[in-house]
Amino acid sequence: MNKIDWAAFPDARGHFGPYGGRFVSETLMGALDELQAVYEQYMQDPDFLAELDHDLKQFVGRPNPLYHAERMSQELGGAQIYLKREDLNHTGAHKVNNTIGQALLAKRLGKKRIIAETGAGQHGVATATVAARLGLECVVYMGEEDTRRQTQNVYRMRLLGAEVVAVKSGTRTLKDALNEAMRDWVTNVDDTFYIIGTVAGPHPYPAMVRDFQAVIGREAREQHLEMTGRLPDTLVACVGGGSNAIGLFHAFLGDESVEMVGVEAGGDGVETGRHSAPLCAGQPGVLHGNRTYLMEDENGQIIGTHSVSAGLDYPGVGPEHAWLKDIGRVNYVSVTDDQALAGFHRMTRTEGIIPALETSHAIAHVLDLAPQMRPDQSIIINLSGRGDKDLNTVAEREGITL
Amino acid sequence: MSRIEQRFAELRKQNRAALIPYVTAGDPEPGATVPLMHALVEAGADLIELGVPFSDPMADGPVIQKACERALRFGTGLRDVLAMVAEFRKTDTTTPVVLMGYLNPVERMGYETFAQTAKAAGLDGLLTVDLPPEESEDVVGLLEQAGIDPIFLIAPTTSEARIDHVARAARGFVYYVSLKGVTGSQTLDTSALAARLEGLRRHTGLPLGVGFGIRDAETAGKVAQVADAVVVGSAIVRLAEEHDGDADGFARAAAVVVSEMRHAMDAARSPGAAATV
Question: Which one in A134, A346, B205, B261 has a CA-CA gap of 20 to 30 Å to A270?
Answer without folding.
Answer: A346
